[in-house]
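User: Can you help me understand a structure? I only have the sequence.
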Amino acid sequence: VVVAATGAAAASWTPQMFQISTFDGWVEKAESLTDPAETSHPVDPVVMVFMCTYIGVVCWVLLPVVVAVLLDNFIRAVNDEKIKLSHEQEMLRMKGLNVSKADQSNPLDPLLETLGRFRDSEDLSRRIKNLFQALDYDVGGTVNFQEMQEGLRKM
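Assistant: Let's start by predicting it. Here is the structure, written out as tokens:
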């Protein structure tokens, strides 16, 4: 019987506690939570301590956390919209320059794709060594800018 009464009391207090946490008419709600049978003490001290603790915890601790989460989500949504807008502007700019989507890819993509399909570390080392040998035209053991430029152009 006590559990059922406590559940019913909690169900009736929930909207009141929410209204108190918004500071909307909390004085009237606090007065309604007091024990009207006691005339010498119009405010029950236990209720008063609970109300002060509740207001302190909810309004000064939990409410700023909720506001911070909402602001963080708002900022993230604004940044996502900026990124989307910049992509759309870039696509319009490319369309104005008559550049196809295939032309927008990185010129090194075929080379990186070939290197990325290695089976093991020995295979990767062999592929890199073959690439170096293909770029080192003068067989000097180094690849300078000219050799790199000419080798990549021919690939």
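Now, to help you interpret it: The chain has a mean pLDDT of 76. Residues 23 and 59 are 9 Å apart (CA to CA). Let me know which part you'd like to focus on.
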